[in-house]
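Appendix B: complex inputs.
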Amino acid sequence: MKCVIFLICALLANFVYSETVVADELEDAKLLIAKNVLNNYIVEGLNLTIKYTIHNIGSSPALNVKLQDENFPAEYFEYASGFNVAQWGRIPPKSNVDHVVVVSPKLPGMFNLTSAVVTYLPSEKASKVQTGYSTELGEVYIQKLSDYNRRYASQTINWILFIIIASPSILIPYFLWNSSKSKYQKSKKLKKSN
Amino acid sequence: MKIFSLTFLLIASFSFTLLFAPVIVRAEDAVEDDAEEDAVINEEAENPSVAESEEETGEDLDLSSPDVKTNFLFVEPAEGTDLPAGRLVKLLIGFHNNATSAFLVEGIDASFRYPQDFSYHIQNFSSFRYNKVVDGDREATFEYMFTPSETFSARQFGLTVNLRYKNGEGREFVNTVFNETVSITEPDEGFDGETFFLYVFLAAILALLGLLGKQMLSSVTKKGRSSKPKSYAAQATSSNEVDMDWIPKHHVETQSNSPKTSPRQRGRQAPKSKE
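Resulting structure:
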């Protein structure tokens, strides 16, 4: 009988042990922050869409998550939509949140797009705030609007001008032909009526 | 008592299997070396096997710093062990600095290795330079992307992603962020140009065959009733005359009535004639 009790104890111990093995090593919340530009071209005066994605790859929720991006100062950029600060009370484990802002650069030239800063509490017990940096894009070239338009704009005015300039060489021969044709037809009709 | 001993034996065997089950399962896991989790923490200080592989590659760089923890996440595609060939693979790499001093993260490089022998490089991907200082007790995220070649589809490779960084004294470290076998899969495309044009070509061949068949049929059926037009043509040529039946009637009329003067003169003459 003692043996049976021992075995049951062993079974229980085994169960508890396996449970602890299953538990993830990554107990706290762990955030990976990506900062991406969704535009293909960065142009002065046009909208530039920035997307921040925060992935929580830990196994507990991240609390008091605050994303702050001081990368777009007012003298260089204008916020067309969205804010440079975003907050989430809680990001559950194995999930991600997005934040999108639209800015428009005021000046052309090189600009260093650096990382945003995210602060969060890694777990409910944690008292120390964890600070993390997002991915960064490095130096980017902000194109001049005129350069961009020359290359990629729809050139409607140029096409209209082209049509106006090219039209005489097509229209003048057409009218000449048309007048001679109408004369010929008139004479033919008169002949017939005779 | 006999029954008791039998049940006892049964219970004993059952519990023993249960007791050793996790050990056996873990051993199998080690052999298979598959990790399906999206995110895995990689602590090299506790993982001597990675250190061994580092020595095998012959890099004279030091091992990872015990103060640094790295982890990764495949963003594109979501499940990191199946990479579609010819498509961009994006992964985020987290760098956690537990030390009080700063580290300079220099860059990340990745390579495909031969799965049976990780020291054999098949393809090196371009290394990314970050040169970002991560202060003590901070963490940073880095993005790495690469495109596996389309010629590698439906094969397995060992993918190794190394993160290189320096401490304040200039000592270099390397963390192997990812070191697993991945399989390159064929991308499932909605529209395949090659097959589309194959079908266009087949349709063209069918249309051509249909046309040829129609022509053959018509020539076969014409043979029966072609005697009449043939003789008619022969008649026309034999009589050596212009066969006016071929020309529409109104043309013949205009030809006969055609004025001999130029249209300009006619224009002048016409009002006179009317008078």
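The first strand of chain A starts at residue 31 and ends at 37.
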